[in-house]
Write a structure and sequence with these properties.
Distance between the termini: 20 Å
Number of domains: 1
Radius of gyration: 12 Å
Structural class: alpha+beta
Oligomer: single chain
Mean pLDDT: 89
Number of strands: 2
Strand content: 15-25%
Low-confidence stretches: none
Largest sheet: 2 strands, antiparallel
Number of helices: 1
Pfam family, one: PemK_toxin
GO molecular function, one term: DNA binding
Shape: globular
Helix content: 25-40%
Order of helices and strands: EEH
């Protein structure tokens, strides 16, 4: 899924998700746009609903 974040274009690879402990996250990089988040969540719901 294409995404722009911090003036950089990239991809969200939903099939390469993994769990990360909050303790390992040092600082917040920012927030993705609401429409991007909703699109990602809908896609994940479709994948895991099967």
């Amino acid at each position: 899924m294409p995404v722009s974040f911090a003036k950089t274009d990239g991809l969200i690879l939903l099939d390469q998700m993994r769990a990360v402990d909050k303790k390992r996250l040092v600082k917040k990089a920012g927030v993705i746009a609401d429409n991007t988040l909703l699109k990602a969540l809908r896609t994940l719901q479709e994948v895991f609903a099967e």
